[in-house]
Amino acid sequence: AQSVTQLDSHVSVSEGTPVLLRCNYSSSYSPSLFWYVQHPNKGLQLLLKYTSAATLVKGINGFEAEFKKSETSFHLTKPSAHMSDAAEYFCVVRGGSNYKLTFGKGTLLTVNP
Amino acid sequence: DGGITQSPKYLFRKEGQNVTLSCEQNLNHDAMYWYRQDPGQGLRLIYYSQIVNDFQKGDIAEGYSVSREKKESFPLTVTSAQKNPTAFYLCASSSPGLAGATQYFGPGTRLLVL
């Protein structure tokens, strides 16, 4: 069994300040972890993924995430928010060889000018 | 350009009507998926298919049906048995056999009930 908890349903930051979106997971297997971004009425775009290689994963648009097994966390960060980062972000876990992805409920990021 | 297309962008269903959502991919992926998205609930898996002529139920398959006659196509039918069909429907595909295989998503279809 696997599950994902996104700890904040809504995060609000000012443009140019750091972004932190928090995600905890549980999995019976060595997991693969993903962050996707969704702009309004659009499909999901992959930001980055962890697949048991380096624990610090760099993604597109300046985002990165760190896999911490001891804390079962996979938080998403960005040093400086841009207005175009405003969107909904989903943390996703895939356990073992199962094709099934389990999605968190999403974190809505707003960026204030 | 390689990718996943979904049509239509908006779809309206009348009471008692079956409607079919289209999903096509030209990524040469073997696996395809259908998800339903409701506000505040993330995405939930309806059906998935790992190979042509084979598919499995996901978590919320009741009231839906699929077919997989071609590798590139995975249409979803929302039947009259689905009593609450209003949602955003997303199709995805992936290439199996790769560790941590990534699912790529289409732009979605929004289904509304008249």
Rough outline of chain A: globular
What is the rounded distance between the termini of chain B? 35 Å
Helix count of chain A equals: 0
Please report the total strand number of chain A as a whole number.
Answer: 12
Describe the structure.
The complex is a heterodimer of chains A (113) and B (114). Chain A contains no helices and twelve strands. Chain A has strands at residues 2-6, 10-14, 19-21, 23-27, 31-38, 44-50, 56-58, 64-68, 73-78, 87-95, 101-103, 107-112. In chain A, strands 2, 5, 6, 10, 11 and 12 form a six-stranded mixed β-sheet that branches. Chain A has a four-stranded antiparallel β-sheet with strand order 3-9-8-7, with no helix packed on it. The N and C termini of chain A lie far apart (41 Å). The mean pLDDT of chain A is 92. Chain B is built from no helices and eleven strands. In chain B, the strands form two sheets. In chain B, strands 2, 4, 5, 6, 9, 10 and 11 form a seven-stranded mixed β-sheet that branches. A four-stranded antiparallel β-sheet of chain B has the order 1-3-8-7, with no helix packed on it. Chain B has strands spanning 4-7, 10-13, 19-25, 31-37, 43-51, 54-57, 64-66, 76-78, 87-94, 104-105, 109-113. Classes of the chains: A mainly beta (113), B mainly beta (114). The A-B interface holds A 9, 32, 34, 36, 41-46, 49-52, 90, 94, 99-101, 103-106 and B 4, 6, 31, 33, 40-45, 48, 50, 58, 88, 90, 92, 94, 96, 99-108, 110.
